[in-house]
Amino acid sequence: MFSIAKYYATLAGLLASLTVCAADFALIDLHGKTHHLADYRGKYVLVNFWASWCSPCLSEIPELNALQHAHPDLVVIGVAMQSGTRAKVAEFAAAQHMIYPLVIGNRELAEQVRKAAQQADEIEVLPSNFLFGRAGELLEFTAGEVTQSSVESLLRSKKAQ
Fold first, then answer.
1. Angle at 56 (CA atoms; ends 52, 59), nearest 5 degrees
2. Relative to the CA of 21, which of 66, 113, 117, 131 has its CA 20 to 30 Å away?
3. Secondary structure string (H, E, C) spanning 100-154
4. Distances (CA, A) of 40 to 25, 45, 69, 136, 138
5. 3-19: pLDDT as tens digits
6. What's the rounded Cα separation, in Å, for the pair 104 and 101?
7. What sign does the CA torsion over 122, 34, 135, 48 have?
8. 19-160 has which CATH code?
9. What's the pLDDT tens digit per position in 95-131?
């Protein structure tokens, strides 16, 4: 026998289990490779907005390198804001031993990532980090520095769900 209450309860459960996926973005790195959020479905993506003159950003570099190295299911993409030309950023990245893809950022690119994350506020602080889940959904936005352990803790909690 058909039960309308059971039908709506089942439908509500299904709707609650759906994840809202972020829109896509296109980030072109220093080597000319385009990174789309959709290309990384099944992996976590950490988009890190940073600047070469920002000391907390500099503290993050070894943490992000360690994350990129330790987690094959995580992609880190660095977005250099107000850091000079491509050549200057590439030189800086080489000196800092940055192992993750780097993009030259600007206001339009920041807006693209912010919209993909469905975040209303503008990026006002460097560093700023967007962590996207395996389905492209925003898991966490951090205005300020992240560490390897803070990101790993968040990943563990999401993997356990």
1. 85
2. 66
3. CCEEECCHHHHHHHHHHCCCCCCCCCCCEEEEECCCCCEEEEEECCCCHHHHHHH
4. 11, 7, 16, 8, 13
5. 444 533 443 443 333 34
6. 10
7. negative
8. 3.40.30.10
9. 999 999 999 999 888 888 988 888 767 788 999 999 9
